[in-house]
Amino acid sequence: MWFSLVPLVGLLSLIVLLAGFHYLSNGRKYWLQRKVLYEEPCPIFGNFGAALTSRRSYAKMLKYLYEKYKNEKYVGIFQARRPTLMVLDMDIAKTIFSTDFACFSDLRISSTDTKREPLLRNVINMRGTEWKAMRQIISPTFSSAKMKGMFPLISECAHNLRNVLLNSLGEVEVPEVMCRYTTDVVGSCAFGVDPGSLKNPESPFFIMTKKMYRVDRATILKRYCRTFSPRLFKLLNLRSYPPDVEVFFTSAISQVLNERRSGVQRNDYLQLMLNVQETEKEFEMTDALITSNSFTFMLAGLETSSTTLSFCLYQLAKDKEVQDRVREEIKECMETHGGLNFEAVTAMKLTAQAVTETLRMHPPAPMVTRLCTSPCVLTGTDLKFELRNSVLIPLQCMQRDARYFPNPEKFDPERFNDPKTPAIFAFGSGPRSCPGGRFAYLAVVAGLAAMLSRMEVAPSARTTPRIEYDPRSFILKNKGGIYLEFNAL
Ligand code: HEM
What we know:
The chain is α+β, with helices and mostly antiparallel strands. Helices cover 50% and strands 8% of the residues.
């Protein structure tokens, strides 16, 4: 009997020990000593315990803090034991993103050990001069000319999406189908393979994609550990993605590299890096770097675009009047430009505004972060930053703040016709902002055009009356899923 009490006593002792350490050590006094208003943290978890234990979404916890300190310019918080400055003022956020970029040029995820996980040695995790060089290499992929060249690949996937839905009219689990669409778009535009996810939901590529994005408690704990305790992450020999996911994508990309070397040329992201490998002498573009940076498309572009499409369809299903006007515009543009082509999609102004409004309300990432890369005093404040101090910008809270976006709970795409409406932060801002924004717009608008030109979307019996974010996912998702009714017109 006493034997079964051992683990319990052990756990209680550990909690008492950690709590004692928390209250006696100076860590929690960090903001107090700097005379910055702060939110009292809990031992071990800081201010985000409920998110870590999946009781509340990260978005909800950020909202709580934002509402509580809304009239301040910033507040000190703790992510686990790490002190972080949460910025509450849009102008200060812009200073960090742009004016003071030289002092805040890293993202916090840059703490990933890419020697252990080479697939993650990509532009997102790079720092300093390596980041700058890689960013210059990938940026031309997203130029207007390259986008136009890639558009036929996107358009083919959009037609497949429409056909899949026309063949399964009625209630649809939207995020699942949208993820199959963006998997096919990313597979063909990033490295020229056809993942075949729309035609076959059991395709190996899609199975691996789903595995990569799986959210369960173990994954949440693992990611939290990687961000806030990288040494423990390494000590426990944890990895960000399951080994079979790493093996699958590494060998898929390596196969494409071999094909390209035998003479096949394409207009995609991987080809651009391959050209750099052949021509650039100053930057050593190894095969491993081409592989990891092609994988970035999967990491950064696939789920963000598919959740945007899903939320946009949800909003349009709930607002038939806006949906009808969007459809009218889509049909008009397709007629004027002779089908679903680059010119037609880039002319769809209201549809693009519906996407921007969706990103305002439900940005896939509710916040962005920066690490201090050079000691400084933040412009316009007397706040001193030391190397590797951490900043958090709760972009969704700002985008739902009535001071910046009047009537913020209303889905109103036309608010962007007003020149006074601020730009959204859903893609971040400044030199470290998302390079894939234009690509994402093309993929999302093309998908919407293909669907809405032939179908109407409406709430179904399982559509939740409002969006409540899933506490198990950092990327914003609806807790009850998104189910909608698709009807042919
Ligand atoms: C709706 C879709 C998307 C959203 C909302 C989104 C959002 C974001 C955000 C918030 C960041 C961080 C920016 C910052 O900290 O200032 C980011 C970074 C990034 N995104 Fe996207 N993204 C989307 C699609 C894409 C696509 C399609 C790609 C294609 C490759 C992509 C590639 C990247 C990369 C490479 C970075 C890191 C940039 C760097 O560190 O220099 N994203 N994205």
